[in-house]
Amino acid sequence: MSKSKNVSSAGNQQERLVEFKNWIIGFVDGEGCFSLGFVKQSDKKEENRTRRGYKTGYQIFHEFAITQGESSKLVLDKIQKFFGVGNVYINTRYDNHNEHLYRYVVRKRKDLLEVVIPFFKENQLRTTKKQNFEKFANCVELISKDTHLEKKGLIRIAKIADTMNRKKAGKNLARILRDHKPTSI
C-alpha cells in the first residue's frame, strides 16, 4: 500500500512541476524580455596604452530579464531558483514610485544556451513573445559560433534584432553598422 502512495506522490510532484512550468511560461509571456543590445567598443587611446576594442567596433549584449516591483521579488527568487542560473538585482528608484524594482537577469551565454533557451524551446511561449524568443535564440546561437566577430555576421544579427520587441522600421541598426568603420589607433 505504501508503494501506491509513493507512486501517487511522485505523480503529484510531476503535476506540480508541469503546473509551475506553465506558470513560468505565462509569467514570461506577460513580464519577460529577450533582448539584444549593441555597445560601441572601438579602440581607445589611454595614457600609457591603446585599449583594443572589438574587431567590428561593437559588442553584442544579450539578456533574458523579468522585472517586478519589490512586493513581488519573491516571485523572481522562485524563478531564479527554478532555472538555477542568473541573478536578481535591485534597481533602486528615487522617483515618485512606491517601491524599488527588481530584475531577474540571465546574461551569461553558456546559461542562455544550456538552460534558458532549451527550456523555452521545450515549453513554448504562447504570445508574440514566442517570435522574439525564437529570434533571440537564433542570435545567441549565431554569437556562440562567433558570427558576430565579422562585419557581415554583425549586420545579420542586427537585422534580426531590429525586428524584435516591437521595434519599428526606422531605427535600422543594420544600416548604421554597415556604414560603421571601427577606429584603429
Descriptors:
alpha+beta, Endonuclease I-creI, two-stranded antiparallel ribbon, 48% helix
What's this model, at a glance?
With 185 residues, the chain is of the alpha+beta class.
Largest sheet, strands/sense/barrel: 4 strands, antiparallel
Which consecutive residue ranges, at least 5 long each, have pLDDT under 50? none
The count of DSSP E runs of length 2 or more, i.e. the number of strands, is 6
Radius of gyration, Cα only, in angstroms? Answer: 21 Å
Note the total helix count. 6
Helix and strand composition category: alpha+beta
CATH architecture: Roll
Tally of distinct domains: 1
The spatial strand order of the largest sheet comes to 1-4-6-5
Q: Tell me the strand percentage band.
A: 15-25%
SSE run: HEEEEHEEHHHH
Overall pLDDT metric: 85
The CATH class designation is Alpha Beta
Query: Roughly how many Å apart are the termini?
Result: 78 Å
Instruction: Give the proportion of residues in helices.
Output: 40-55%
